[in-house]
Design brief:
Blueprint (H helix, E strand, L loop, with lengths): L2 H14 L5 H13 L14 H15 L4 H5 L1 E4 L2 E4 L11 H15 L4 E5 L5 H9 L4 E6 L2 H11 L5 E4 L13 E6 L14 H6 L2 H4 L7 H13 E10 L7 H9 L2 E8 L5 E8 L2
Parallel strand pairs: 3-4, 3-6, 4-5, 6-7
Antiparallel strand pairs: 1-2, 7-9, 8-9
Helix pairs in contact: 1-2, 1-3, 2-3, 5-6, 10-11
Bound molecules: S-adenosylmethionine (SAM).
Length: about 280
């Protein structure tokens, strides 16, 4: 079977199914089946029957809107690869910005910086910070047992300390000593259920997505908990939905405990995460 034809047909099938990046996904799946990097794909002219059948099965699953990363079994995040699959939230490229901000703050804090990643999911943000700030002491917590198992796998041997538990009460012994908190909490309003893409709605755990009627319940818990964990002058950064560019920072302002509360945009100019500093 000609590779070019397979790619063309798969792209058309994925496009018809409403997949956002059909050509890219068709190529990623084919490279996965062939065991080659994306860059080498144009060098392969023909595909064997078994590989063709395996590709067809994966394209059918992607057309049914299974997340690409579940089919590949991994997701790239900054400089690391994370194992992902059913039971854990797939790390998104936009969260790399929050991780990058956390990395800068951890570097500023100097050797031995204490970093806590709340709602760690696959462990993506904690793992990236540990990877890029070798001297930092990174801690992470996850409530959902299935997601925690994925994080265990992704953080094994990295030096990141992982716990199972609720961010509302986690890390009591670190109270008043944390330099940087990162958190990508659930933030989708329950009322927005219909607007969530099938990949997320049907495959990301609901505990990872939804957070009360206005989507801000978890951020309210975070705003309170961070006042306990942070040292005076310590930083907290939290992702939110693009419609929460004012309401999410307002949650932190309302506590009266933070200074320099501001919202930050992604490369497309959309409000993406807030940052705040515990008043000294
Ligand atoms: C949007 S996902 C983010 C996962 C990961 N940090 C990332 O950016 O890919 C939110 C995660 O928070 C977890 N979670 C929700 N409520 C929590 C809580 N109260 N305490 C700890 N984790 C919680 C969910 O299970 C989910 O794994």
């Amino acid at each position: 079977m000609s590779t070019r034809r397979l790619r063309r047909e798969a792209t058309a099938r994925l496009q018809q199914a409403g997949v956002a990046s059909p050509e890219r996904d068709a190529d990623e799946l084919l490279a996965h089946v062939l065991g080659v990097g994306l860059g080498r794909l144009p060098l392969v002219d023909e595909v064997g029957d078994d590989q063709g059948a395996a590709y067809d099965a994966l394209v059918a699953r992607r057309a049914a809107r299974e997340p690409l990363q579940h089919l590949l079994g991994s997701a790239a995040f900054r400089h690391v690869e994370l194992a992902v699959g059913p039971g854990v939230f797939v790390p998104r490229p936009e969260t790399e910005l929050l991780a990058g901000w956390g990395i800068e703050r951890a570097r500023e804090a100097g050797p031995g910086a204490v970093v806590v990643d709340l709602c760690t999911g696959s462990g993506a943000v904690a793992r990236a910070i540990g990877d890029e700030v070798p001297g930092a002491r990174v801690h992470a917590v996850e409530l959902d047992p299935a997601a925690h198992s994925w994080a265990e796998r992704n953080l094994a041997g990295t030096g990141v300390e992982l716990r199972s538990g609720d961010m509302a009460t986690a890390f009591e012994e670190l109270a008043g000593s944390v330099d940087v908190i990162t958190c990508n909490p659930p933030y989708v309003p329950l009322t927005a259920w219909e607007s969530v893409a099938p990949e997320a709605r049907d495959h990301d755990p609901h505990l990872a997505l939804f957070s009360g009627d206005d989507g801000l319940d978890a951020l309210r818990v975070l705003a309170r908990r961070a006042t306990v964990l942070l040292r005076p002058g310590g930083w907290v950064g939290a992702e939110h939905a693009d419609v929460q560019g004012e309401s999410a920072p307002a949650v932190f302002v309302a506590t009266g405990r933070y200074e320099q509360v501001r919202d930050r945009r992604d490369l497309a100019g959309r409000p993406r995460f807030l940052t705040a500093r515990l008043a000294r």
